[in-house]
Design goal:
It contains six helices and eight strands, in the order E-H-E-E-H-E-E-E-H-E-H-E-H-H. The chain is of the alpha/beta class. It has a single domain, classed as von Willebrand factor, type A domain (Rossmann fold), CATH 3.40.50.410. The chain has a six-stranded mixed sheet, with helices on both faces. Helix 2 runs parallel beside helix 3. It is globular. The model has no long low-confidence stretch (mean pLDDT about 95).
Length: about 220
């Protein structure tokens, strides 16, 4: 049930769990769990969280529009890294899940603007999607941005800016991160979401500062 009179935000996260993530798995776990704890600590209104954990063996949704209190920390058992990267399928399916919730909960829309963020974290290029194409993902992202969403893209071991641009994601919401800074990338992702929330969903761009971007890319 929606809580009357409280700010309502839908958070979506697409989290890579492909085989290449094994080398930074502990940082991914630590970073995600800190993200969850921050979300739980800061939940002042009606926040909902959708998580997609994906590889070519499975695209899993442990949480769909769950309250922060319902979200549990990931463990070695619940976060298994394997196989390849169906990035487009993961993004498309996550947007579909978020769309369904927003259609059923109009209170998350204010002045025809949906209050939602979608964060995508990966360490590899698309190489295994079966249902969605790049053009399809571009159209989905552009349409959601027009509805008021903020889309954030963080990536390691690839050209994050070229990849994000090819999917229609604003460069000011994109950052490369050194693989060993997976944990910090989660902190930056949460900060970006908080900036969007603090603007009441009005600030869709410039959610990652130049300082944070430089720090994430620093290999030292």
């Amino acid at each position: 049930m929606d809580k009357e009179g409280e700010k309502k935000f839908l958070i979506g996260m697409v989290l890579d769990s492909t085989g290449s993530m094994n080398s930074i798995k502990s940082d991914a776990l630590g970073g995600f769990n800190e993200y969850v704890q921050s979300m739980q600590r800061d939940d002042e209104g009606d926040t909902r969280f959708t998580l997609c954990v994906f590889n070519s063996q499975q695209i899993d949704f442990p949480y769909t529009a769950s309250t922060p209190a319902e979200v549990e920390l990931l463990t070695d058992r619940t976060y298994v890294c394997q196989a390849n990267t169906p990035l487009y399928d993961a993004i498309g399916k996550t947007i579909s899940k978020m769309d369904a919730f927003l259609e059923e909960h109009p209170a998350f829309t204010d002045d025809q603007r949906q209050r939602a963020t979608l964060t995508i974290l990966t360490d590899g290029l698309e190489n295994a999607s079966q249902e969605y194409t790049r053009d399809g993902v571009v159209n989905l992202i552009e349409e959601r941005k027009a509805r008021g969403w903020a889309v954030i893209f963080l990536a390691a071991n690839i050209d994050a800016f070229a990849t994000g641009r090819q999917m229609g994601i604003d460069q000011s919401n994109t950052s490369q991160f050194a693989a060993r800074k997976m944990r910090q990338s989660m902190q930056v992702a949460y900060k970006a979401h908080r900036t969007y929330m603090d603007s009441d969903g009005r600030q869709q761009e410039d959610l990652i500062s130049d300082e944070d971007r430089a720090d994430l890319a620093d290999e030292e």
